[in-house]
Structure formats: C-alpha cells, structure tokens
Amino acid sequence: MRGVAQLEFNNPVEVESAIAHISINPEPKNKDVPLVRAYEGDRLVSLNPWALEPTTTYTVTIGADLKDKFGQTLGKPMTVQYETGDVAPELWAPAELHIFPAKGVNRDASLQLNISTVNLSNYKSAFAVVQPTDLVYTNSAYPSGNGNDLLPNPSAWKTSQVANQQNQSVETTVPLQTLLNGSTGMLAYGVQARTNSYLEDGKQKWREPVFYGLVQLTNLGVFAQWFPDSGLVRVHHLADGTPVANASVQVYRSNLEAQERPQPTPCATGKTDKAGMLTLERAEFQSCRSPNSENAPQLLVVVQEGKDWAFTRTYEYSGAYEYGIDAGWESGKPVSRGTILAIASSINRAKPPISRALPPTCKRVR
User: Fold this and answer.
1) Exposure of 75 by Cβ count < 10 A (0-12 exposed, 13-18 middle, 19+ buried)?
2) Torsion of CA 241, 244, 248, 250, to 10 degrees
3) Using an 8 Å Cβ cutoff, are 312 and 223 in contact?
4) Positive/negative CA dihedral, 128, 134, 138, 139
5) Residue of 187, 179, 77 lying closest to 141 (CA atoms)
6) Contacts 24+ apart (CB under 8 A), 285-288
7) Which terminus of the chain has a smaller tally of CB atoms within 10 A, N or C?
8) CB-CB neighbours of 175 under 10 Å
9) Are 215 and 186 in contact (CB under 8 A)?
10) Strands 96-101 and 112-118, bridge-based pairing
11) C-alpha radius of gyration, the chain, whole number
C-alpha cells in the first residue's frame, strides 16, 4: 500500500483530453473500470487504483496531443515508470440486521456468516445468542457503553487466524446454526481487525475497522397494528404463507433509551387464532399505553411457535404518513404498525469487490 498515483501539470488539463491521451502498459485487464480520474479546472490527474493489478510495474504514457484548458498541447510524449504495491489490508463482514427464512428456498445448505479478509493474518470476533426480551432495550449489536451490551468489550474478543493468500480475498465461514445451537434464533456478532498503521502527531496508530451485526433465522413473519382502543397481531409462516395458529404473542414497551435493564414483563399477551390473528381489546391493551401521553406507544411484539420466534417493533410515528395520508393518534385511526419479513438476500453471498493496491505516487509532470 503506497498511496494513489498522480500526475501534476502546470496548467489544468481538459478532462476528455486526459482520458484520451493518458495510457498505461500493460493495459488494464478490466476495461469497464475507467483508468483516468480528471476534473475540470484541476492540475492533478489520478490513476484509478481499482483499474490496476498489485505488485505490477507499469509504463505510463502521456501523449503529445494532451491539451490544457487553454488549448495548448504537451508537444511531445512523456513516459514514467510506475510500480504498484500490495493490496491494502482489508476486513469486511455484513453489518446491521439480517433476517432469513429458516425453511424453504435455498435452505438446503446451512446458512453461514462470511468474513472477508485481504492481506490479514488474523481478526477478532465475538458472538452471542440474543433472547427475545433483549430487544426491549436494544435494536443493534453496536455497543451503547452502558455496560449492558449484547457483546463483550472488543478487548475480550477471540482472535482467529487466517490462512492468508497474498493479495487475494480470503473467506472465513461461520456456521450460524452451530452457534445458535439450533435451526432458528438470533445471533449478535462483532468482527474487528488491525488493517494498516499511520502516523498522527508523530505516533503510530492503527486503523481498526469493526463490524457489528444481528442475524436471525426464523420461519415466522409478523404484522402488528395499533389503534387507540385496540390492537392486532398477525403471524404467518415464511416458507409457505400459512397462518400460524396458537402462536404465543408477548407485547412489551420498547425502551431503547433505558440506562438500566431490569427483566422486562409484557404489557399484553395472547394466542393467535386459526387465522393466525390476535386481537387485543382496550382493557387488554391499555397497560401498553403511556399514561397521560397523546402519542402512540413504542412497542416490541414477540411471537413464538415452539422454539422459533420473531419480532416487530413499532414507533410512535410508524405508519403515520403512509399511503398519502397523515393519520394522527386519534380514536378509530390506526397509526402505528410494523412488519418483519425475511430479507431476500444471502448473507453468505453479499461481499464487496476486492480492493486493489493503492499504488505509489507517480513522478510529477510539470
């Protein structure tokens, strides 16, 4: 990793002329990635590191017909030698919340969490099984700093070795079902690594990217909707859309800003009927509302079928401005709704392209 290659001219160059008259040998392998980065009124022209191969010597040619903004040409061609370095060390893992069907299409093989590394010999990670009631107080694996985080401090994370392949992306797979000890559930995880060092105020420091995420495997889809005097919850199987009868439903007050985290108790409970629906009347739902508040309550709904569970969270503004209407929290008007469904993507397929070498600074042309 040696920095971005730049050509510096005494006058700003024409962008189209720079693209047409600056070339390298050997030619870029990927013709779809532009080689030259130039901007109107700028004297600096950069070579796109994504177009280059690592540890490769290039001959950069600036054609004689290169024009500056005044229409003047260079007059004669110039060449400089240019050598790229290794690919910059890199770490990547999926972040935020991902929910996947536990059954159905593409579930023949065990779902895995992929951790991608480039030019790294190790990384640190931590994993923790999330309980449904944990979500009363958090919606992320990212640390809040109040001592009640889902994951331990990164200083206590386990170090894993990587069979490094120079300048190649290495995929390390983490079997989700093994860590969950079952086919369904939610897992919190964090991944961190030291990638490269830099100097700041004369001191060496390290860039340490860190990724936090939640991943859930479930066969349950949940819909919740709240009225001032009642509420309803619907539960269906993700695999085939069939309603889930006799599913257990617990409704909690969502308290994401809490400093302390006592064991939460539901403000409403019930079982779904044959149509997969639970209707909560005013008396059953009343304790979920905030006393003396005109706003819709912020609630967490957890549904369970056997060991499988899923959730949805509603905020005071959920559904208030949808479908082209402004629905206030007034009697008879639904204002707060939430849905949780499976995300139609694969956590073990989503990964960024490999970062190519950041090459050394080129000789300047004046």
Assistant:
1) exposed
2) 40
3) yes
4) positive
5) 187
6) 285/226, 285/229, 285/230, 285/231, 285/251, 288/231, 288/251, 288/253
7) C
8) 11
9) yes
10) unpaired
11) 28
Whole-angstrom distance, CA of residue 114 vs CA of residue 349:
8
Read off the DSSP letter of residue 179: H
DSSP-derived letter for residue 33 is S
CB atoms within 10 A of CB 202: 5
Domains defined along the chain, listed by start: 6-83 (no CATH), 90-218 (2.60.40), 220-340 (2.60.40.1120)
The torsion angle over the Cα atoms of residues 44, 49, 55 and 58, rounded to 10 degrees, is -50
Whose tokens are 């008007």? That residue is 333
Q: List C-alpha distances in Å: 126 to 157, 179, 207.
A: 5, 11, 19
Alpha helix stretches (DSSP H) within 117-210: 176-180
By three-state DSSP, how is residue 16 classified?
A: helix
**105-134 confidence digits (pLDDT tens):** 455 457 899 999 999 999 999 999 999 999
DSSP string, 209-268: -EEEEEEEEESEEEEEEEETTEEEEEEEETTT--B-TT-EEEEEE--TT-SS-PPP--SE
DSSP string, 147-169: S--SS--GGGPEEEE----TTSE
The tokens of 162 are what? 């990587």
pLDDT, one tens digit per residue, over 306-349 is 999 999 999 887 655 444 544 454 544 444 555 554 433 333 33
Of the candidates 89, 93, 85, 356, which has an alpha carbon nearest to the alpha carbon of residue 198? Answer: 89
Q: Nearest-CA neighbor of 214 among 134, 157, 158, 154?
A: 134
Q: According to the model, what pLDDT value does residue 290 have?
A: 75
- CA-to-CA distance for 325 and 317, rounded, in angstroms? 13
Structure tokens at 212: 């936090």
